[in-house]
Amino acid sequence: MPIFLRNEYPQTLPTALLRKATQHLLKAEAPPRAEVSISFVDDLAIHEMNRDYRGYDKPTDVLSFAFQESIEGVPAPPLLPGMPIELGDVVISADTAVRQAEQHSFSLEQELALLAVHGVLHLLGYEDETLEGTHEMREKERHYLGFQYPLWTTES
Q1: Single pTM value for the model
Q2: CA 1 to CA 27: how far, in whole Å?
Q3: CA R_g for the chain
Q4: What superfamily in CATH does domain 3-68+83-145 come from?
Q5: Per-residue pLDDT reduced to its tens digit, 55-114
Q6: Domain ranges in the chain?
């Protein structure tokens, strides 16, 4: 299951844990031949995307853009044998990831892995707009990351 990384951030980022956790998630929950693209950008770039695509005029930590979203009443395009299934793109603000890791005394590598797993879960249809959805996503994140994030509590 290919994971394509694209670094548009001006420094090299630690991605070994991100690759491991994302691969584990894709093997368990994605269709065979699924692939995902993860890009690292700065706050300015993600601010523009958040404003243009979601209507929020501020930076955020991660955005997900699913390619397989269904439109009611429109059949999904056929999948050709052997062709990859492009789940979509995950865009992570490395600036925000650095700040969040520092604020929570967490490694940047762990923060990037969390944001990637969170973004891929959205590509797979999970949501965190409801309390039930948030609980489900937190449990999935804990499972695929294999560590406890400092902000997760029994209430989150």
Answers
A1: 0.87
A2: 7
A3: 16
A4: Metalloproteases ("zincins"), catalytic domain (3.40.390.30)
A5: 999 999 999 999 865 556 666 666 667 778 899 999 999 999 999 999 988 899 999 999
A6: 3-68+83-145
